[in-house]
């Protein structure tokens, strides 16, 4: 619970000073703002709770810079929304234009409202007719989030160009960690120093995209998952956005972000209009594990509130089989019934029919947007899609169906009848296509009603329990023919509305957010979606880091992690079944595999792993995800610790051969240092005779790799650790840790 304290004092210069301090001792987090005279607030503390928070009244005198030669009369000391009126000379962060003329605002605070969760600050430039309401909250997770509402109080229209919020970080946070990527290789880490200047990553394709950095992290040089102070920001928005880190010669670093708005996209015509920025989230911790844990806790609490408000009972994450890599577009009743039988026998609890069930959709060139069941593939009667859904339900499984509601093929009845329902830059030119698709203008009420109506009807008609919602095309040159204005902002809000309305109309319906894999992963969509598809690549070697860095933001139970075929369809890399299953074990387990083509031995082994997953999934859904900073770049150590700290499962992965042979001892982070634990192989590893059979290369026994294991303290396991088994590259093993 957040405790808020307020303190009043006077600065050395005789100015009125008001400090608002927010502390959450359960989350070990604190955040404090200082208001000097009538100026916008400045952050004077972000970190652990202080023993004497009232001493923060001295922070202004302690931190305010002196005037220096060759600059303005005041040296830049950025507020929460710095402008040139307060000596900010970096990238413009508040850009507004009245009737086309840019305004330079000097905001005066007119009200400070302190509530249970945080503070709301009203400030205005009365002469120029611009008002902002800046809100800052501390969450139960220890996350801090901020946003701003902008209002037009003057005569004439006010165009919003940019509202970039930020958090200052301590002066020794001088290394940045972001991620980059592309299709089939999302979340690839990259580091660089935070030097004087501006580092910016922008997403301009109507979604965060593969190259997006889920978090922009600034920390002490060399920080990792388990060590080093680190501060992180995230923009909770599924449209165009940016994240940036900036230093001036006069300031320490500022990290933050904003929605990216096109010219004319947001115009406020009068006082009744307003623009609200996305939430900018901030997290800090000793290492990335703690930073990520705050986001995980916040998302879990958000979804728990939704379920409670809508009377939806908690349930374990169902094991999924998705038909895409099993049959692609080759749908027919008999094949999918046989696949459903194999799925149920393997322990699958949710059967999802992917692309190809509707209209003329026999490939990816036609039919998208025609959301009616194809009579060619699924004729009415005993071999209908309804009959398949009923069959799946009768087998005790949930039924899921694929949609791509935001897109249309030009070769479709929808487009031929309503070509004006597509975003396009001019009346006579479409945007460049991607995957034979264009983007449906969901800001058009008629288009929205059509798409929503089709989905709503099919959910009821078929008894759909789960929607796999895909989004494959970049949203470019996005102008609405209906309004003539850029539409990414409105399109994003329409998607949020459709998610919300479908789930509200069909309590218990779950929706997965897929976007050519991991192209749309952010807190905006995560608050509505029940799961994300991390990547179209299910090659477990590639997934090792894709999943690891996706978990900086997303809790394990919301990350779709599937067991696929070997060789992998996306890379043609061959891997062992053990590796493929171990890599899918910690997330929301699924199967992306044609089980009809596999020998019974492999199906039996799959069933054993699914059963083992079910034994541990409650811990994966509520526990703490951890990763270790192994010195050896060829290995990965990942784990999930139960919420009460009594149990854990860790995975050791040997991605490639190493300079060290056998592998060096590994540390197991996150355990109670004072507790004693028994460490032993997961039963299914021992039952299969691994790791000394097909996936191992050790020539003698490993002393602890047996049913008895070893007993060690959490402190010892986190320092010198223990020796992992010697295994071939592109393999992984699992072991359990239990408090004794």
From TrEMBL:
Give the catalytic activity: Hydrolysis of terminal, non-reducing alpha-D-galactose residues in alpha-D-galactosides, including galactose oligosaccharides, galactomannans and galactolipids
Glycosyl hydrolase family 36 N-terminal domain ranges (all copies):
40-268
Q: Which residues cross the membrane?
A: none
**What Gene3D superfamilies does this protein's entry cite?**
Aldolase class I, alpha-galactosidase from lactobacil brevis
Family matches, as InterPro entries: Aldolase_TIM, Alpga-gal_N_sf, Alpha-glycosidase_related, GH, Glyco_hydro_36, Glyco_hydro_36_C, Glyco_hydro_36_N
Q: EC number(s) per UniProt?
A: 3.2.1.22
Per the record, the domain of life is Bacteria
Q: Name one GO biological process term.
A: carbohydrate catabolic process
CDD domains per UniProt: GH36 (cd14791)
Q: Which residues form the Glycosyl hydrolase family 36 C-terminal domain?
A: 640-730
Q: Which residues form a coiled coil?
A: none
What does the UniProt keyword field contain?
Glycosidase, Hydrolase
Protein name per UniProt: alpha-galactosidase
């Amino acid at each position: 619970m957040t405790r808020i304290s307020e303190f009043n004092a006077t600065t050395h210069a005789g100015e009125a000073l008001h400090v608002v301090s927010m502390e959450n001792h359960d989350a070990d987090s604190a955040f404090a703002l200082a208001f000097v005279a009538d100026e916008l607030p400045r952050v004077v503390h972000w970190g652990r709770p202080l023993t004497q928070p009232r001493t923060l009244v001295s922070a202004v005198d302690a931190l305010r810079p002196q005037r220096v030669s060759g600059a303005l009369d005041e040296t830049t000391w950025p507020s929460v929304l710095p402008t040139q009126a307060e000596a900010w000379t970096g990238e413009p962060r508040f850009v507004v234009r009245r009737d086309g003329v840019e305004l330079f605002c000097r905001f005066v605070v007119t009200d400070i409202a302190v509530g249970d969760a945080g503070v709301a600050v009203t400030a205005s430039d009365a002469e120029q007719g611009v008002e902002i309401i800046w809100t800052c909250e501390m969450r139960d997770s220890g996350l801090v989030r901020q946003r701003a509402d902008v209002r037009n109080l003057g005569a004439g229209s006010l165009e919003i160009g940019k509202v970039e919020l930020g958090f200052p970080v301590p002066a020794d946070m001088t290394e940045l960690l972001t991620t980059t990527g592309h299709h089939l290789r999302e979340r690839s880490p990259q580091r660089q120093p935070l030097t004087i200047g501006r580092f910016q990553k922008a997403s301009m394709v109507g979604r965060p995209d593969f190259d997006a950095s889920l978090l922009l992290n600034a920390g002490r040089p060399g920080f990792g998952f388990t060590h080093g102070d680190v501060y992180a920001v995230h923009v909770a928005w599924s449209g165009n956005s940016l994240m940036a880190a900036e230093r001036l010669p006069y300031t320490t670093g500022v990290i933050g972000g904003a929605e990216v708005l096109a010219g004319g996209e947001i115009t406020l015509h009068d006082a009744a209009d307003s623009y609200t920025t996305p939430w900018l989230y901030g997290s800090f911790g000793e290492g990335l594990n703690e930073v990520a844990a705050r986001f995980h806790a916040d998302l879990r609490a958000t979804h728990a509130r939704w379920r409670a408000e809508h009377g939806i009972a908690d349930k374990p994450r169902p094991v999924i089989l998705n038909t895409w890599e099993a049959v692609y577009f080759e749908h027919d009743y008999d094949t999918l019934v046989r696949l459903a039988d194999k799925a149920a026998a393997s322990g699958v609890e949710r059967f999802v029919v992917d692309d190809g069930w509707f209209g003329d959709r026999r490939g990816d060139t036609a039919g998208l947007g025609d959301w009616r069941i194809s009579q060619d593939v699924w004729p009415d009667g005993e071999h209908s899609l309804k009959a398949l859904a009923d069959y799946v339900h009768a087998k005790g499984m949930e039924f899921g169906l694929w949609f791509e509601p935001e897109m249309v093929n030009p070769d479709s009845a929808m487009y031929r009848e309503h070509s004006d329902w597509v975003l396009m830059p001019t009346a006579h030119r479409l945007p460049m296509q991607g995957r034979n698709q264009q983007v449906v203008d969901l800001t058009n009420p008629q288009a929205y009603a059509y798409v929503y109506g089709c989905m709503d009807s099919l959910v009821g008609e078929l008894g759909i329990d789960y929607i796999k919602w895909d989004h494959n095309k970049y949203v470019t040159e996005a102008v609405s023919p209906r309004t003539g204005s850029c539409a990414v902002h409105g399109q994003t809000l329409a998607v949020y509305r459709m998610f919300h309305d479908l789930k509200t109309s069909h309590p218990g319906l779950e929706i997965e957010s897929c976007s050519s894999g991991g192209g749309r992963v952010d807190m905006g969509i995560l608050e509505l979606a029940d799961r994300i598809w991390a990547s179209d690549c299910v090659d477990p070697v590639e997934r090792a880091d894709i999943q690891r860095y996706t978990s900086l933001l997303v809790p394990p139970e919301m990350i779709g992690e599937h067991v696929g075929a070997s060789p992998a369809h996306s890379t043609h890399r061959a891997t062992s079944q053990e590796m493929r299953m171990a890599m899918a074990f910690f997330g929301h387990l699924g199967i992306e595999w044609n089980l009809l083509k596999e020998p019974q031995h492999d199906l039996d082994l799959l069933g054993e792993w699914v059963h083992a997953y079910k034994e541990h999934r409650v811990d994966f859904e509520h526990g703490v995800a951890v990763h270790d900073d192994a010195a050896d770049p060829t290995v990965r150590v990942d784990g999930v610790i139960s919420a009460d700290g009594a149990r854990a499962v860790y995975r050791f992965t040997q991605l490639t051969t190493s300079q060290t042979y056998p592998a060096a001892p590994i540390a197991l982070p996150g355990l109670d240092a004072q507790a004693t634990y028994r460490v032993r192989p997961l039963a299914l590893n021992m039952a299969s005779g691994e790791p000394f059979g097909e996936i191992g290369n050790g020539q003698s026994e490993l002393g602890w790799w047996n049913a008895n294991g070893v007993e060690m303290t959490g402190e010892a396991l986190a320092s010198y650790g223990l020796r992992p088994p010697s295994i071939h590259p592109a393999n992984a093993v699992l072991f359990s840790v239990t408090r004794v």
